[in-house]
Amino acid sequence: MKVIKVESTSAKETFELGKRIGENAKPGMVYTLVGDLGVGKTVLTQGVAAGLGISGPVNSPTFTILQVYDEGRIPFYHFDVYRIGDVSEMDEIGYEDYFYGDGICFIEWANLIEEILPEKYTEICIEKDLEKGFDYRLITLTDID
Is the pLDDT confidence value at 64 over 90? Predict the structure, then answer.
């Protein structure tokens, strides 16, 4: 299991980390995002989109569950499963086409759908530590397989 820890002291640094992830992403990669509200999941995701060459606005798809961005070098599938009531709702949107498709997936609140996650993915956990400053974040990337 490979684990990388990155300390960020600003939204700009979090965005830049996301951009590097997007620049290095390959089709079929799946990332889960774990962290409380307001820790920077969307900022990181916006950076990933920039790294993929997506120039339009990228926001959390809270009410639509899935937002698809096709204008980058590879498709970007951004899930926010916070509001699903049951994992079977993922079947209704055809999640397998995205999880095992030709793009990359970012899944916010993935702990709610753990039973359908692919065997191999990268978990990104973002944590605050107010003792180290208001904008401080510890971002841990863990390869799961």
Answer: no
